[in-house]
Amino acid sequence: METVYIILITTFKTLIYFGILMLHVAYATYAERKVIGHIQLRLGPMLVGPHGLLQPIADVVKLIFKEDIIPTKVDKAIFRIAPLISLTAALSTFAVIPVNKNWVISDINVGLLYVIGIAGIGTYGIIFSGWSSNSKYAFLGSLRSAAQMISYEVALGLSLVGVILMAESFNLTEIVNKQGEYWYGMFLFPQIIGYFVFVVAMLAETNRLPFDLPEAETELVAGYFVEYSGIRFSLFYLAEYLAMFCMSALATICFWGGWTIPPVLLKALPALGLIPGIVWFLLKVYFHIFLFFWLRGTLPRYRYDQLMAIGWKVLIPLALFNILVTSIFKYYL
Amino acid sequence: MQNRVKTVKELVVNMGPQHPATHGVLRLILELEGEVIRKCTPYIGYLHRGVEKLSEDLTYVQSLPLTDRLDYLSSMVNNVGFCIAVEKLVGINVPERAKFIRTMMSEMARICSHLVWIATHALDIGAMTVFLYAMRDRESLLELFEMVTGARLTVSYPRVGGVRCDVDNEFLDKLYKFTEEFPGKVEEYETLIDRNRVWLKRTKGVGVITAEEAINWGLTGPTLRGSGVYYDVRKFFPYDAYDKVEFEVPVGKNGDIYDRYRCRMLEFRQSAKIIKQCIEKLPEGPILAENALRIRMPESPLKIDKKDIIFEIYTEDKQIQEFIQKFTEVYASVEAPRGELGFYIVCDSSSKPYRMRVRAPSFVHAGVLPKLCEGSLVADVIANIGSIDIVLGECDR
């Protein structure tokens, strides 16, 4: 009976999470167009609804009803399954992400490992799509993606080792709680190098500018999803935005103290404690999402070899150095 | 154990003609080894409209609108180039005011063209914001073109012997205001890209052309000057009012993408400076030479047969009539935004050119692409195409 109860509760939680997430993703596309619009001195969506607020809904409707073209010579089964792999991987990561105290679908002990592991599976979707498309541009895009993901996954993982050392746990809730024990309430300050590496690797992991090489529309036309259209194309976009949210949530949890506010701040302004944790969490997540948009409006794209050089010659040594420093401090203090 | 011979299969990629970064309809066949380009073969001709051949069947004046379509991003300069060639052919002296107006307009066209260049070049390298900023500023110039010529892109404004119509004070005021504000806008682009590490990494030391190579390849314009060669038609063979205005010719050092970029950015400022001087020094007087070629059209085109609609060039000047009698040839060139744009005309004393040939800078520049691309990476190809700034309209003609 208890198992059924747990399954029902988890399903219910998952559905709520799913719904809210999808809404967030839809409006993240809107927010991106608005933010970029302001950076680039244009309006962004304005016509559908007040200030174009219904634009994401209109987009979804359009993409669902658009003709789904599958080129003749593609490997049909893999072509069809590829976007689903990306999407499923991106969605699955949210199973362990706590958004507030005890607000999590599954509070597992290896949460951090799980997120990194599952996020890596998304690469399969990209490689499969590129390979099955039977198009050279798509193939090049997927090859780039594979190399990029492998390189930056290492840096991403290593950048989080400092956090793990400090929190002495892989559990994401534990990591947040541990940060509350310090007066500054965040791992951001002691782990500033780790945070830097994480942010750069997060941009690369989610294929965002300046690391959007797998799609690089001016070089590879659209890269791995060049042959996709309609709803299948939008699934890739969905996965990309979900990955953005996932990485932002991870940055918030591991470096920004998740849903908590620094104790020192709370002491100075006790009224802040009245604001629910989820608000803090979302604010921190959206700061990172804004970072994604802002960088897109500012930076050009790296070249493939430069991207690799940054990954292997800058980020990984930096992350290793961070681990060393953290370990020494941890041992002696 | 036997040594295994590894066979490397090269990937042949067709970049273009519908590729977003091939600046028109350039087609490059790239033989790749991984991401490294082993061989690059450019193919042109997808935009061929036979302008040179068509003009042999049209009178000089009728050919003028065709020149608009060559380099459609700076049609004013093409018009001026063609008019100068015909003026040289028939020996017409252009009034001073017209010369200044033409100079002004040519520099406006240069700014317009360079704006499209910086926009697309930045977009190729991934900086979309610059694209929109540049398009915003180009818009104000296009509006000014529209004010005077009635057209925005293909203006057909200069005439053999002058210009079509005069400019008014409102236009001059607006243009002056633009020249005051424009250097600030250029700084805006520079803030976005010039101090950007990613941009510098993508451009410095990439696509190097030495001065010697640049001369051997016949490169001109900012592409040549980026390699450190001081050559500018405006300085060496001044036409229109270029000998009456002061300006500098920016020259690069290393011949890489960054130097070509810097040259064009400095040209922005120089062009604004030239326009300003033209406005300040603009003399009063006629805008078309007295003995200029005039088009004699039938009085009422609606009433007559199609076969009777004949465009004819005539002049009352005896000297010119004699001059035209001879079978002669002429070459005149101007400094277009992309480089030296030359018109070579063979005249058989009829009202139509016997032969016309355009020396288009884009055509020459497209030839250097394999040299630039081979051995580099896919991403460098588009950066290189952007840096040599080609327009396929004039490349294909």
Give the strand order, joined by hyphens, for the main sheet of chain B.
1-2-3
Largest interface: A-B, 31 and 33 residues
Structural class of chain B: alpha+beta
**Percentage beta strand of chain A:** under 5%
Return the structural class of chain A.
mainly alpha
Q: What is the multimeric organization of the chains shown?
A: heterodimer
Low-confidence stretches of chain A: none
Biggest beta sheet attributes of chain B: 3 strands, antiparallel
Count of DSSP-assigned helices of chain A? 12
**Shape annotation of chain A:** globular
- β-strand number of chain A: 0
Per DSSP, the total helix count of chain B is: 16
Rounded to the nearest angstrom, the radius of gyration of chain B is: 23 Å
Secondary structure: number of strands of chain B: 10
Largest sheet of chain A: none
Organism (chain A): Thermodesulfovibrio autotrophicus
Keywords (chain A): Cell membrane, Membrane, NAD, Oxidoreductase, Quinone, Translocase, Transmembrane, Transmembrane helix, Ubiquinone
Pfam family, one (chain A): NADHdh
Subunit structure (chain A): NDH-1 is composed of 14 different subunits. Subunits NuoA, H, J, K, L, M, N constitute the membrane sector of the complex.
Structural commentary:
- The complex is a heterodimer of chains A (333) and B (397).
- Chain A is mostly helical.
- Chain A is 69% helix and 0% strand.
- Chain A is built from twelve helices and no strands.
- Chain A has helices at 2-39, 55-65, 76-92, 111-132, 136-167, 172-180, 192-205, 217-220, 230-255, 263-268, 277-298, 304-332.
- In chain A, helix 9 crosses helix 11.
- The N and C termini of chain A lie far apart (48 Å).
- Chain B has a three-stranded antiparallel sheet with strand order 1-2-3. Chain B has a three-stranded antiparallel sheet with strand order 8-9-10.
- Chain B is built from 16 helices and ten strands.
- At the A-B interface, helix 5, helix 8, helix 11 and helix 12 of A face strand 1, helix 4, helix 5, helix 7 and helix 15 of B.
